[in-house]
Design goal:
alpha/beta, Rossmann fold, Nucleotidyltransferase, domain 5, 3 domains, 10-stranded mixed beta sheet, 8-stranded mixed beta sheet, 27 strands
Length: about 600
């Protein structure tokens, strides 16, 4: 096994970086590097942390404890006060500083400098990047070193398979706007070592990362914790947590183009017995080290990345449970936190969503106005997203080949637990558009469900109570609504429709990008050109492809009108818009209300 701390003794590199999740001993390892320097070859050292509070309350006590546990360092300390941010060992200074304070960083030059949690550090006002300042402090020492650690933050990077080795590595992101994480920019400018381990089955090396984590589909956090494994990218075999110690013991940092050949055959028993011993004991000595092949990239920076999956303090199951819990929330900050801190990977910032200005362009070219009925409209639907203080309403007309036209959008303000706002909704639903009445209504019952059921019951056969769910087994399904009275469940005769929210929202986003002249176009009326709030809400949730290949929706702002438009797609499916005839076959003069009634069954 090649340790990062062993690599720091090489004269080949000037700067070193370790990028990984939290609680993986990266800070402890680099503090050990500084203390070893002070013990073996004393020269001034500097530690730079993200905040003053972190340095004085967390790091300083940790350093003090480490010094006191080493007799040779204790003997080299002068008598006097210990708990300070300027320690003296063997007559040289070991200073502790923090980002944001140029005075503390510039107080003294140092041979060895640690910049801890680089991505959490803002540039120093008037002095620029913390890493640039750190490099300047080490300039007078010919054998000086700068060490950078951090959990990565935001950016969009892909992976690519090296054709020579078959190992999958992170690709270099050349688009600066897609990579906000400064430590990742530092990583990809260096050697790009990634922690690779052998599969205990096929004995081929691979880099564990988020896509290799496997757990049952639809699992709860508890089930994911029990059943999680990682998959070898070569043989596809699932690997248990019990193998992690052996895998790490034979791990190497490999850059793209590097591989490990030979080794991993137990010297203590014949090869045919090796497999049985491997499963029985999985101890580190079961196997010999192989030969690392390939060229190390030419760079002054030795940069390394380790997946949180290989942390000895966090199991595969713990990683899976944290992810499942975050994914269920659909909260961007929660998801970001798990990807960064648990897996040590970037949080994608470029989701799949159209630009909101595209909606203004659609409205600018519109050929109809608010509440006007385009000639090809055959069915009209009303959809409602329920909030505490308002009903968010969309009225849209539908025609042949799924073409649709926004007719009306509105927020009906009022306490949705009271009847007044629902009466106003009824007035809107009862309003005809020319000779065409409203064919169907869908109301989200995720909030104020009792009020929703009460209102829907007054429009039996026409109104749907819905509940959005991400990634259900069906696009939509009907369930009985039951109430409990005195411990007994009673059917109300109402139904709640479960709707695949992700699919419906994706349908809307896909149609926004379709040219207005093509069949199936998605239209806005002329006045929407200035309706910025509606336009922004429709793209305030992004469809994101995760490293695992799964799709996740990330909410970045208010999205109530997108929820209402998604329900329009649900009604279009369940009410049979696919069966509508072209105008020249159905006839513009047909009784469209009768057609709608026929389609409703």
């Amino acid at each position: 096994m090649v340790r990062f701390t062993d690599m720091t003794t090489s004269a080949r590199w000037v700067r070193y970086g370790i990028i990984c999740g939290t609680q993986m001993a990266k800070t402890t390892n680099l503090l050990n590097v500084l203390l070893r320097k002070l013990d073996d070859d004393p020269q001034p050292c500097l530690y730079i942390g993200p905040t003053k509070n972190n340095v004085t309350t967390v790091i300083e006590p940790q350093i003090e404890s480490a010094i006191e546990s080493c007799d040779s360092l204790v003997r080299k300390r002068p008598p006097g006060r210990r708990r300070t941010t300027d320690k003296r060992i063997a007559g040289v200074s070991f200073r502790l500083a923090w980002a944001g304070s140029e005075t503390e960083i510039a107080a003294q030059n140092a041979a060895y400098i640690v910049v801890d949690e680089f991505d959490k550090m803002d540039p120093i006002p008037g002095h620029g990047d913390v890493l640039v300042q750190a490099d300047a402090r080490r300039g007078t020492f010919a054998d000086g070193r700068t060490f950078v650690t951090s959990t990565p933050t935001e950016g969009t990077v892909e992976t690519e398979k090296n054709e020579l080795t078959g190992i999958v590595h992170f690709a270099v992101q050349k688009d600066a706007t897609a990579l906000q994480s400064r430590v990742w920019r530092f990583f990809q400018g260096g050697t790009r070592f990634e922690w690779a381990v052998p599969c205990p089955h096929c004995r081929t090396y691979f880099v564990p990362r988020f896509p290799t984590l496997v757990y049952p589909e639809g699992a709860t956090p508890a089930l994911a914790r029990r059943e999680a494994k990682i998959a070898c990218i070569h043989c596809g075999t699932l690997i248990d947590e019990a193998h992690k110690f052996w895998m790490n013991a034979h791990g190497y940092y490999l850059a793209p183009g590097m591989n490990v050949e030979g080794g991993l055959i137990c010297e203590e028993c014949p090869e045919e017995e090796h497999e049985a011993k491997l499963w029985r004991e999985m101890h580190a000595s079961c196997g010999t080290q192989g030969l690392v092949t390939g060229e190390i990239p030419d760079s002054d920076d030795c940069t390394c990345w380790v997946s949180g999956l290989m942390s000895p303090w966090r199991s595969f199951g713990a990683c899976a449970a944290a992810w499942v819990d975050a994914a269920r929330s659909h909260d961007g900050e929660t998801i970001r936190g798990v990807l960064n801190t648990v897996f040590g990977e970037l949080y994608r910032t470029h989701g799949d969503a159209p630009e909101w200005t595209k909606l203004r362009d659609i409205a600018r070219d519109a050929l109809y106005r608010h509440d006007e009925l385009p000639v090809n409209v055959q069915l009209i639907f009303v959809t409602v997203d329920v909030q505490k203080d308002r009903l968010v309403v969309v009225v849209r007309g539908w025609g042949y080949e799924w073409e649709s036209w926004l007719l009306h959008h509105e927020e009906l303000w009022g306490d949705t637990d009271q009847g007044g706002v629902w009466e106003r909704l009824s007035a809107l639903v009862d309003k005809p558009y020319g000779d065409v009445g409203i064919a169907a209504v869908a109301v989200d019952s995720g909030y104020r469900d009792e009020r929703v059921y009460e209102w829907v019951s007054n429009y039996a056969g026409k109104a749907y109570a819905t509940k959005g769910v991400y990634n259900p087994r069906k696009l939509y399904s009907k369930n009985n609504v039951e109430v409990s009275i005195a411990g007994k469940s009673l059917r109300t005769g109402l139904h709640q429709w479960t709707v695949d929210t992700g699919y419906m929202k994706g349908w809307v986003h896909d149609r926004i990008g379709r040219p207005q002249q093509e069949p199936g176009a998605w239209h806005l009326y002329k006045e929407m050109e200035t309706a910025d709030d509606y336009c922004k809400q429709l793209i305030n949730e992004h469809r994101m492809k995760l490293p695992s290949g799964r799709t996740l929706w990330r909410k970045v702002g208010p999205n109530d009108f997108l929820d209402a438009e998604a329900l329009q797609v649900f009604l279009a499916h369940v009410e049979g818009v696919r069966s509508l005839l072209p105008p020249d076959q159905g006839g513009e003069g047909d009784d469209l209300a009768a057609l709608a009634a026929k389609m409703n069954g």
